[in-house]
Amino acid sequence: MAEEVNIINKVAMTAVDSESPWRSSLRQLRRNRAAMTALGVLLFMVVVTLLAPFYAHHFAHDNPFVPNLQGRIKIGNHFREVMQTNTTGLGVTPVGPTWNFSKYFLGADELGRDVFARVLYGGRVTLLIGFSSGLICITVATVLGMLAGYFGRATDWIISRLLDIIWAFPIYLLAISLSVILVTNGLDLGIIHIGAGSLLLPILIIASVYVPYVARPVRGIVFSLKERDFIHAAVASGASDWHILRKEILPNVMPSVIVFFPLMVALNILTESALSTLGIGVQPPEASWGTIINDGLQLLHTRPWVAIAPGICIVIVCVALNIFGDGVRDAFDPRAKLRGSI
Amino acid sequence: MLRFISKRLASALLVMFTISVLVFLIFFATPGVDPAARIAGKSATPAVLRQVAKEFGLNRPLPIRYGLMMFHLFIKQDLTSYVNIGDRIIPQITAAAPITLSLIFGAVVIWLFVGISAGVVAAKNKGKFIDPLVMFFGITAISIPVFWLGEMVSIITQGGLHRTVFAWVPNGGYVSLTQSPWQWALHLFWPWVTLASLYAGIYARVLRGELINNMNEDYIRTARAKGLSERRILYRHALRCSMITIVSLFGLDVGVLVGGAALLTEVVFGLQGVGWLTYQGLQNLDLPLIMGCVMYGAFFVVLASAVVDVLYAYIDPRIRVVA
Amino acid sequence: MSLDPTSAGAVLSVRDLSVSFATRLGVVRAVDGLSFDVGPKEVLGIVGESGSGKSVAMYSMLGLVRDANVSISGSVRFEGREILGLSDTEMQSVRGGDVGMIFQDPMTALTPVYTVGWQIVEQLRAHNEMTKKAAYERAKELLAEVGIPNPTSRVNHYPHEFSGGMRQRVVIAMALSCNPKLLIADEPTTALDVTTQAQILDLMGRLQATHGSSIVIITHDMGVIAEIAHRVVVMYAGRPAEIGPELDVVRAPRHPYTWGLLGAVPRADVKTRRLVTIPGNAVSPLEVPIGCAFAPRCQYRMEICVERPPLRGADDHLDACWLSDEQRLAIRSTATVRGEA
Predict the structure, then answer these.
(1) Percent of chain A with pLDDT over 70
(2) Would you state the pLDDT for residue C138?
(3) ipTM for this model
(4) How close A329 gets to chain C, by Cα (Å)?
(5) What is the pLDDT of residue C263?
(6) Alpha helices, H only, chain C
(7) Which residue of B has its CA nearest to C59?
(8) CA nearest to A316 within chain B
(9) Span B7-42, pLDDT tens digits
(10) Coil, strand or helix: which one is C3?
């Protein structure tokens, strides 16, 4: 019955014009208002963070990476010190939010740096890490999954055991362990030299930790694809393995893989912020939303905005990624489509 | 069934072994790290360093080093902390465990209740307003870094409103259950809510998805044709089949948490559980402590995974045949 | 004579049933003006291609179409009582209790996590006041009736422990558990191999005799119709093309679509060089032509076919076609000469 009604709907849809499944999926995605709004929010965040240098030079007139312990700023008609001596006479407290776009909009952190400008700069790093490790993770996972699923036997055994080992390790522990060692010492493997402070380290660590999460489903999909007739036909017509992988298997795996991407980015951003808060993610002088949250810990009750602002940014970006990701899944996932329209 | 269990246990042991090898390699075989100093402790004399090098076979081939490390860790149990010289690792971990367990216990109760109810409500009212609303809360819940949420809670309850609305919220820390159940719960209340929020969001989303998928299955159509009420169909048929996924997810989540995954939550709220201990170890690069905590954590994850597999076979009768 | 408007004594009486779906691209009329009766102890076969609306018709009668965009009109009387438009709660007592259903795919028809006994007992206790013990006993009896060996132990087995044919028997047992007056079977044998098909059809025939229920069997296979049905409804594009006693329809079909369906059945006794196919494709539900739905594919179409033919006939064999009896006779004689049909 579900089949009959679906047949009716499918006929109804394709009766109008036969279009490629990619086109029809994209169209369905475009019509999803929630997903499009989320995409808009994401793009907004990306653009705003990319404008960080612009903001720093033309508005804040300060380098947010350089401590500014002695500085003074003009608020209204008075000059105030950036680091203000406490009423008790003990220690200093940075100035709070001025809500003034041109100077210390969100106040200063414990080193007198402009928090808002740092949040903007930090956004670039966080988003960069999120997207690149997501991309690397998905690419590696897809390749591994396809190789394991298609060639089977020995190749599959080796790859599956590798995935099992990575996956058996609790993710946070693996990420933490690798980070503790590599981030403080750098990576020195023969021809590969990665400095201790390089962003490449968190990117690669986070990407590798999540590879099994994507590789396993891809392997499963390839296994079931292998049995399908169009593969048999390709083999029978003499196509090489490489050709089949590229032209037949990959396009059929892509929709499911695409679904993973936004979700992986969100997951990676959260992981990066956790690692940075622990001090083993992004290293100074670089800043990310996670490191700023860490900075804000000391000032939690005096200048809470240092911790609040980057957290809110993370929440906004991840909510947008998840909503957009849901939309992508509804439009592209072959399983969801069977239930979706009716 | 018994064969299935023993097969599963054997596989679990194999995984534990692999993890221990990996941990060892990461911490003690990575170029650039000097294990002797880290094991011996800060300000160790050269004599002690030599002693350590001998005991742990640091000049011997890797497999021997591994063997000796495991020996010290598990059998002699005399691995001592790098920072607090002389403090043994294992007792520290066992002392911290009940705190972590208390944290998890309350969080589990909350997140199961909230997550499952939310998932059912959303699935039942699919398409109507309350469905996207619940899902939006779910998405938000999984987008908030747990530790940051803890800090926000801290700001609110310890900040300006501390004298008035939130006067009852203690300043962090832990009171053992045996000492005072009421204080125990009071101190753990906000940590429970904070930790539960992430998982409630996950479970609500997963359950809603599973329920909706299952409600489209053929056997639901049969159930309707039998003349059963929609309520019975939802709870006795669809939900029962959806629980399979939830149970396996739950087992893994609890396993990971018991192993110390809630470390940042513990730190933010000042609960000195296993996660907090791991954090301390990380801050000080206290390798023995880190190794101990990592092995402890891995053990629970592997155990949980095995338990889940066995439970799975119990809940889903189809698996038993395959096993 | 057309259908008896009073439909006296009929177990199921359908008049002018129409089911349409509002889709993004327009209104899809899945069922358009279907009318038939099912008498007591009678087996009615509904036959047609995929998309002919045969399943949608039966499901919508029982309120099993849960789509929000559906609209159903017409009249469906079960034992004289109008059931179209009943609330879901009221339908729940009809479903399972008065009307039993069997579905196409036995592999997915049963809930995997409960034993078959539990599922039969569930249905029994939903419609009858019974103790669990009594219900389980009845379940064992039912399993025995449908030919499942060792019912006492098998009653506690899970669905996946049964083969496809056995599972279908369980489904049949479940459907008959509350002694329904009407059994609806949606392609009950399509998913089974040929030998099992014969067994299941045989079983259904026997059970029908012992339980005294009527059966509506939906299928695309004329062979099944010939095997078990007393009367046939041939459907095309949601409309009835021909209705009548099985023997009449099979021996002297009147609608060109039925000719195509019957011609498409390979026959052992007639030497044919090629299998006959019905030219053209099934009509898109969005583009049902004005007038006779089959006209675009019909080799005998006439000018008058732009008007929708009414369902009519001289006796209880009705058809919806403008061809007169003389015209049909002429067509049949030429066809016989050419060795077709």
Answers:
(1) 78
(2) 93
(3) 0.85
(4) 21
(5) 74
(6) 54-61, 88-94, 116-127, 132-145, 151-154, 164-176, 194-211, 222-228, 246-251, 256-263, 325-337
(7) B225
(8) B143
(9) 777 877 887 788 778 877 777 766 656 666 666 655
(10) coil
Whole-Å CA distances, B123 to A143, B117, B135, B208? 36, 10, 10, 5
Comparing CB atoms, the residue among B23, B30, B147 nearest residue A274 is B147
Percent of chain A with pLDDT over 90: 18
Q: How far apart are CA C119 and CA C158, in angstroms?
A: 10
Q: Which residue of A has its CA nearest to B259?
A: A170
Which of A170, A176, A280 is facing B301, going by the closest CB pair? Answer: A170
Range scoring the smallest mean pLDDT among A152-156, A308-312, B138-142, C255-259: A152-156
Instruction: List all chains that touch chain A, counting a touch as 3 or more CB pairs closer than 8 Å.
Output: B, C
- The DSSP bridge pattern shows strands C231-236 and C43-47 to be parallel
Joined tokens for residue A66: 């350089």
pLDDT for B323 equals 38
Nearest residue in C to B242, CA atom? C113
Peptide bond into A285 cis (omega under 30): yes
Task: Please choose, from the candidates B304, B290, B319, B310, the residue with its C-alpha nearest in 3D space to the C-alpha of residue B79.
Answer: B290
Q: Do C97 and B127 touch (CB under 8 A)?
A: no
Contact between chains at A11 and C286 (C-beta distance less than 8 A): yes
Nearest CA to CA, how far is C140 from chain A (Å)?
30
Say whether B22 and A169 touch across the interface (CB within 8 A).
yes
Which of chain B's residues have a Cβ under 8 Å away from the Cβ of C126? 226-228
> pTM of this prediction?
0.82
C164 neighbors C107 (Cβ within 8 angstroms): yes
- Compare CB distances from B219 to C64, C108, C175 and report the shortest one's residue: C108
Q: Provide the β-strand partners of residue C312.
A: C319
Identify the CA nearest to C301 among candidates C276, C331, C341, C277: C331
User: How are the residues of chain A apportioned to helix, strand and coil, as percentages rounded to the nearest 5?
Assistant: 70, 5, 25
Give the separation between CA C56 and CA C51, rounded to whole angstroms.
Answer: 9
Return the partners of chain B (3 or more C-beta pairs < 8 Å).
Answer: A, C
pLDDT one-digit tens code per residue, A128-177: 999 999 999 999 999 999 888 888 788 888 888 788 778 777 777 777 77
3-state secondary structure of A191: coil
Cβ–Cβ < 8 Å for A288, A282: yes
* Chains touching chain C, criterion 3+ CB pairs below 8 Å: A, B
Stretch A239-268: mean pLDDT, rounded? 85
Tokens found for residue C61: 């009668």
Strand partners for C76? C14
CATH code of A36-54+114-341, in short, is 1.10.3720.10
Res. C293 pLDDT band, cuts 50 70 90: confident
- Check pLDDT > 60 for residue C211: yes
Cβ pair C51:A7 closer than 8 A: yes
User: How many angstroms separate the CA of residue A252 from the nearest CA in chain B?
Assistant: 22
From residue C274, give the alpha-carbon distance in Å to each of A95, C220, C263, C277, C337.
92, 21, 11, 9, 17
Residue type, B298: A
The alpha carbon dihedral of A259, A242, A210, A204 has a sign of negative
Give the whole-angstrom CA distance, residue C182 versus residue C213.
Answer: 5
> Which is higher by pLDDT, A191 or A229?
A229
- With an 8 Å Cβ cutoff, the interface of chain C facing chain B consists of 62, 64, 68, 88-89, 91-97, 100-101, 103, 105, 108-114, 122-123, 126-127, 158, 160-161, 171, 174-175
Cβ separation of A1 and C186 shorter than 8 Å? yes
- Highest mean pLDDT among A103-107, B276-280, C138-142, C292-296 belongs to C138-142
Query: What was the pLDDT predicted at A178?
Result: 79
Tokens at A225, concatenated: 């694809």
Residues comprising chain C, all counted: 341
